[in-house]
Amino acid sequence: MSKKTTQGTPSEMENIKEKSDYLRGSLVESFADPITSSIPDAETKLLKFHGSYMQDDRDLRQERKQQKLEPAYQFMVRVRLPGGVATPEQWLVMDDLANRYGNGTLKLTTRQTFQMHGVLKWNMKKSIQAMDRALMDSLAACGDVNRNVMCNANPYQSNIHAEVHEWARKLSDDLLPRTRAYHEIWLDEEKVLDRSEIIEPMYGPQYLPRKFKIGVAVPPSNDVDIFSQDLGFIAILEDGKLQGFNVAVGGGMGMTHGDPNTYPQLSRIIGFCSPEKIVEVAEKIITIQRDYGDRSERKYARFKYTIDRRGLEWVRTELNNRLGWNLEEERSYHFDHNGDRYGWLKGDGKWHLTLFIQNGRIVDSRDSEIMTGLREIAKVHTGDFRLTPNQNLIIASVSEEKKSEIEALVEKYGLTDGRQNSALRRNSMACVAFPTCGLAMAEAERYLPSLIDKIEVIVDEAGLRDEEIVIRMSGCPNSCSRPTLGEIAFIGKAPGKYNMYLGAGFVGDRLSKLYKENIGEEEILQSLKPILFKFAKEKEENEHFGDYVIRAGYVERVHSGLDFHK
Amino acid sequence: MQFEVMNSPFNQEQTELLNRLLPTLTETQKIWLSGYLSVRGETESVATTDPASKQNESERETREITVLYGSHTGNCQSLAESFFQKLENEEYKVTLSSLDDFKPKALKNVKDLLLLTSTHGDGDPPDNALSFYDYLFSNRAPEVEDLRYSVLSLGDSSYEFFCQTGKDFDQRLEELGGTRLYPRADCDLDFEEPAEEWFEGVFAVLNDSPLSEESAKREVSTHGTYSRTNPFKAQILENVNLNGRGSNKETRHLELDLEGSGLEYEPGDSLGIYPENDTKLVDQLIEEMKWDPKEEVPINKNGDLQSLSDALTKTYEITSLTKPLLEKLASLTPNEELPTILNAESEELKTYLYGRDLIDLIRAFGPWPVTAKEFIGVLRRIPVRLYSIASSSKANPDEVHLTIGALRYDAHGRKRAGVCSGQCAERSLPGDELPVFVQKNQNFRLPDHPDTPVIMIGAGTGVAPYRAFLQEREETGSQGDTWLFFGEQHFVTDFLYQIEWQKWLKKGVLSKMDVAFSRDTDEKVYVQHRMLERSKELYEWLEAGAHVYVCGDEKYMAKDVHAALVTIVREEREISESEAEAYLADLRNEKRYQRDVY
């Protein structure tokens, strides 16, 4: 079946997957070991497929080592929540779990789902079972499989949203691993020993070479950053009716510092398909990556590299062959932003409130009781919650009668649509980074707000308070907050040190370019100040910051990920 | 050293000649000869053929190479592993370890060291090199005059402090007296080639090295003159809290320097400490009594004098009240309440004494129309505190480690702390000194035979001697099975010495471990519950000749553990309770059931 053409010995991870008995490994035994709150390294890799990363509190790592204690190991659980839609009941379950077993906060991720941090080993099963009772799971939320499928959180065209979201959910469900490992390990499902049928018809025993991400966009909003996805579907509407999707392939944000063979890349459109073909197209594309992705070097394994090695035409032909029919010509579409539109909006007879949640962190603080407030809203809300790709939250489908009740709770607990903030802050995004993320090289979520405080001073002085500029920060080049699609972006290199990138397209259609390397706060502010002032003075009508810095010659335009490092 | 054909490259005749000659040489002659030979070796090495390669082989067997690495992303580790493999293939004797897994003290004995490290963040060592790094840069770092070394550093030149850690190690080892056997190589992200070149360079030097002379071992006087009556002032090397943030407990791990003391101890022994009172308490007391802190007062029958404030700090006990003390003090005050308390029911007196100290008493029962000299004449000397030693001297020559639970509580409106534990927790920094002596404890000894299995049961600081036991068994390579039961409040914060048990479990030094964290679950679980859960296996161990040790709190833990042992024996043997008690009594008589409880 497999037509592997990549060279080199398979990486250790391939071996682990193959020997795991379809993602079982020795997770049961490892979670039963009472001497450590960790699990062995190989098991952590399998655990990702179950939606969880083992982490430790990095703030305490050195201190605990001196105390002869193992690191403060804990688990992050990421929910699979297609399109970021959750019911009020599901919200309440996540809120309860976060407070009971987690660190008392929830993170709304850049891929529209919940992350709960700080879960101890012995509470993992209880957490996953509680999620299961609320019809949520964490299966395939991480790992070398199709991850949580993103979908435009469209607040103003609810009927279209419902239809497109249904396709996103279907993609997510149909592309799930078929192994029963998750159900056996966490949900006490009895192990059936019938091995006569093929267990993973699509993935095979080694799953994919690397993670795989799918998003669905509904123009004119590109909130899902469709071009950052391995596979993107752009909804094509005519007369308010869904006609089908343009198919875009080969996007991806991650790279490795110091290795120019790794780079962020944007996907390219290879054609169009009607709605009912969407799962078939996705499945065939996934099998292409399964067969041709690099399995020896994980940092070169994403679909974008497979495509860039072989060319877009090759993918199109290979796909058409596997489908047995040809994709249609791509249809025209137009994006005009990738940020969220805040506040109350009415669509299809219902009200939708987009709240600004800074960096997606649901937590009670001195300023506002976000966590308590949303809990109280969930108790009375009859519509649903939509987690946006920009880490914000929509209280969706509020009836006319309920609107004032919700409004009162928003007021009472200090929730906000962010209007009092600069447009810069409203368009900001940061990944988790320290102290829990094992990959972080520098702060992100804990630092970006205070950096923006300082940039806001410049922005105010320059008269740009209402100028929408997309600003993003990631603690490492794996780029969870899609920084190279931010008009101003920071990627961590070391504590307090960042690479600064400029010049991405405002609608998420162009990558940014490295402007300064390895700089600290002082230099960041010194660098940005003159550019922002000149921008305020020289900007043309409707010209966005990302376009301006190219016109003004601060950075070169990036046409493709292949010239990102040039 | 006596040469033999087996341990040297010489034949029978040469060996005999050398053995006759060498003992007659003076130190100066030896030095001259070694210099002469090494210079000749250099000039003649070109011409050497077959016999020389044989010589090399035997050198390789004797001159051990140590490869240490600090690695964040795994690059240095894999390089180290590959160099290790190459050296082994060449039949060198090689040791490979991450820096932090390497016992820093063993550095003294390393001959040839290849050190590979990356640099992390802003010039920092990688995580698995941090402890070693800190050690090497501390004043505990040993002199390494016999060491030859070379450093390979990996880094990323886009960072300001490129390869800093490698540079640091390189420089530090030189400062400590080491000799660079090959220059350091700093490699950028494309490290493969330069790393290989470095290794080839190192390898070439290693191939040419002459056999180094065994460095003369320092003679340490074993004749100890320090004792309980003449305590040794041991410097504190390390003092850390073993409990993580958020714990209800504070347990101090102390490492003391015994170098030059001649003090010797075995696992199971205790260390005595002469503690000092908190000077804040002393000042309060002096102020309360309106005394002169500088007044000279006698501190013993010989008439030795100390200032009042010193005497109350170092010599006399002021923190606990006893009935005899109250009786003596009653005669020093006209206050009539004090005799009333003394004559009260013993329960009432006990209640009064509990948690109160001298300051409480003088405040309550004044006035005190006496001189300082008269007053302190009734005080007793500060009692010595004994702590089960938490280290093996074989594993930690010249050091002794302690595990001390800091006692703190609020009573009668004031915050209080244990004298010695408070001192160790709050007033003892590395570099400070504590007067100590070794208290032998023959009743808490590892079995004579190293293959005898041991069952160790301890809660809280009661685990201290088991750390010594396992260090000892690791050091002596004992094969006997070991089983540890440990209990505390919370897994995350109170798992004392967690990473050490984990390491020993991995190495097999510790065969089994059961833990009970009483406050992590709804129902409180203690060590005795874990023992009962393992009843059958535990009994099998007993029958196989295991020794059982219990250490820790006497009132609760030791009693409950004993009851659990009785239950286990009774049920597994199907005998009566008194028969089970007799079974345990026999064990005790055979010294197979030993306790160190307090």
Automatic annotation (TrEMBL), chain B:
Annotated NADP(+) binding lies at: 518-519, 524-528, 560
Query: Which cellular component terms (GO) are annotated to the entry?
Result: cytosol
For whether the record's keyword set contains Calcium, the answer is no
Catalytic activity field = hydrogen sulfide + 3 NADP(+) + 3 H2O = sulfite + 3 NADPH + 4 H(+)
Binding, FAD = 319, 385-388, 403-405, 409, 418-421, 598
EC nos: 1.8.1.2
Which controlled-vocabulary keywords does the entry list? Amino-acid biosynthesis, Cysteine biosynthesis, Electron transport, FAD, Flavoprotein, FMN, NADP, Oxidoreductase, Transport
Q: Please, one GO biological process term?
A: cysteine biosynthetic process
What does the record say about how the cofactor binds? Binds 1 FMN per subunit. Binds 1 FAD per subunit.
What cofactor is needed? Answer: FMN; FAD
Q: Where is the Flavodoxin-like domain?
A: 65-203
Task: Please provide an example of a Pfam family that matches this protein in its UniProt record.
Answer: NAD_binding_1
Q: Which residues bind FMN?
A: 118-121, 154-163
| Limits of the FAD-binding FR-type domain | 229-447
Q: Does the keyword Amino-acid biosynthesis apply?
A: yes
Q: Which GO terms describe its molecular function?
A: flavin adenine dinucleotide binding; FMN binding; oxidoreductase activity, acting on NAD(P)H; sulfite reductase (NADPH) activity
Write the protein's name.
Answer: assimilatory sulfite reductase (NADPH)
Species annotation? Guptibacillus hwajinpoensis
